[in-house]
Amino acid sequence: MMQRRRKAAVMAADAAGSCGKSSVDRGRWFMISSTFLVMCGAGTTYLFGVFSKDIKVQLGYDQSTLNLLASVKDLGSMFGVPAGLIAKIIPTRAVLLVGAVLNFSGYFVIWLAVVGKIPKPAVWQMCLYICFGANSQNFTNTGGIVTCIKNFLEG
């Protein structure tokens, strides 16, 4: 009987969005919707087809060089082990901050090169920039998913 009341109280708190905590901004459903927003903002690797033509034209790359950049981008987005290891030792906010810094630094330098604000970088440098930018997605996804898992395990 007591277990049934506790389960009903948890379900009622879930429906209210508060999860038994004092404010809505700490509720599990708010966290999952915020996580989706963060993950959408960090999903720039899916937009490579949109800006790859500009990289090709502005930097004078041929198709094989562009294919190399795309492959390095994919490699960077698939190498998520450091994000998971770092998430075990630092708080989630710091994991998200690392992801934001990698995202900004990688894609910002690419943007600077495309618009001509900096001299044309070597291909290996562009590979490094795009790898950092693509790897940032792993940090934001790890930070968001770990938060959601922790919040849903509490209930």
Strand coverage percent: under 5%
> What form results from the Cα inertia axes?
elongated
Structural class: mainly alpha
Order of SSEs, N→C? HHHHHHH
**N-C termini distance:** 18 Å
Biggest sheet record = none
Question: Which residues sit in consecutive blocks of at least 5 with pLDDT less than 50?
Answer: 16-20
If you compute it from the alpha carbons, what radius of gyration comes out, rounded to the nearest whole angstrom? 20 Å
Could you give the count of β-strands?
A: 0
The residue fraction in helices comes out at over 70%
Count of DSSP helices? Answer: 7
* Average pLDDT rating: 82
Structure summarized in a few sentences:
With 155 residues, the chain is mostly helical.
Task: Set out the fold topology.
Blueprint: H1 2-16, H2 28-41, H3 48-59, H4 63-78, H5 81-89, H6 92-115, H7 123-154
Commentary on this structure:
With 155 residues, the protein is mainly alpha-helical. It is built from 7 helices and no strands. The chain is elongated and about 55 Å long. About 3% of the residues have low confidence.
Keyword list:
0% strand; mainly alpha; 155 residues
